[in-house]
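Forum > Structural Biology > Help requests

Title: Can anyone predict the 3D structure of Aldehyde dehydrogenase?

Hi all, first post here. I have the sequence for Aldehyde dehydrogenase but no way to get a structure on my laptop. I'd be grateful if someone could post the structure tokens.
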Amino acid sequence: MKIYDKLFIGGQWVESSSGKFMDIINPANEEIWAKVTEGMEADVDEAVKSARFAFDHGIWRKMSTYERTEILRKMGQLVQENAEHLARMETLENGKPYHLALREAQNNPQWWFYYAGIADKIHGETIPFEDNKHIFTLREPLGVVGAITAWNTPLLMATQKLSMALAAGNTVVLKPARTTPITALELAKLAEKAGFPPGVVNVVTGRGETAGNRLVSHMDVDKLTFTGATETARKLMSTASVNMKKLSFELGGKSPQVIFPDANLDAAFESAVTNAFVLTGQSCTLGSRVLVHRDIYKDFVSKYIEKVKELTVGDPFTNVDLGPHAHEQQLNTTLDYINIGLEEGAILAAGGERPSDLANGYYIQPTVFVDVDPSMRIAKEEIFGPVVSLIPFSDEEEAIEIANSVSYGLTSGVWTKDTSRAFRMAKNIKAGTVWLNTFRYVRWVTPYGGYKASGWGRENGIEAINEYTHVKTVVVDLEN
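Reply #1:
Sure, ran it for you. Structure tokens for Aldehyde dehydrogenase below:
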């Protein structure tokens, strides 16, 4: 059993104030495989104090952008060298198939390299207006950033929030999800080796109701970035208002994949399966609503059900399609929604049960409901499990209406060879990302965020720097 008995605060590994430990369960077999120290409010206070001192009085802000760039680049190199270990830790803590976790870990350094390249290109503008005035802007870091990550892609989320905030010159206190804290602690080890000055990167593991709430409400935190459930974000908004800290939220999704008859149907079909069930459906970007034109609906459904029944479920360290849910609560939520679908009258065409050959672990069969009415809860609410609604539509107008009929607006996909239609759909779908003839293409260069209840702000790309900086206007009277 692995024991993580320290928090990373002020450049040092320190014991938590509670002296308590949290059990970390392997979702593939329901066994405790690690224990992690439980940080409390006092530990968050110490981490924020350290981050504040590092920002206000430390060498981080005084460093040249070249020096900061080199540290970020070194971090990327260390992540690259440790990709296999990081992937293994993520699979153990949240059940993601190792082959997927490894692919993500191998891509992970690109965020560090990209933002290392941006760190020395953050600048203001000169604004010409009157001859006797010189007007310019400065883009300055916010200060102390509190970052809270979710349990479904813990390594990627921690990397995104750290690399963006640090590139902009901020200091960070990271609080990972209670059930998946290991990868954050492993990143802290690498941050120490990379040479970040004391207090620039801090990691406090703990529970949301204690450590998390303290970070959200802390008066010395200038910015909160949170990835998680929309309902949780609504509560955080009220708590965070005590000092009017800046907020950015990456929240839930109920994304549509819209398939027209003229599409490359082989590619659309593969996407509709893969990008609905990958990660056991535990990703807000996944296309869990598959909208298919009535002209091809019957044949598509038949083929889809057949393919889904071929998907493999099992040990995430083998070459399976789906691993377990990340924790028992999410498994129960998925099972509840399957029952809701049946009660609403949806037709269960595949799955819907736990695999009979897997006695231990939070597994469930990939599940498909067909002929789903868009008003049903399974078609409107985020399930966060491998449950797909197949929905027929008659024309472009109806497809747009169905796509926009939910409270979320994170991502969407459209499959058609008609370029004009593709651009009309992209314009009219209310989502932060619209993929045309592809799906789930998210990279370090692609701004990512939601409309409606899917969040505020953007991650990735140059746009993310705006979330972590202030703009200061300076006006000089040249005659005085």
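DSSP finds 16 helices and 23 strands in the chain. The longest strand covers residues 133-141.
Shout if anything looks off.
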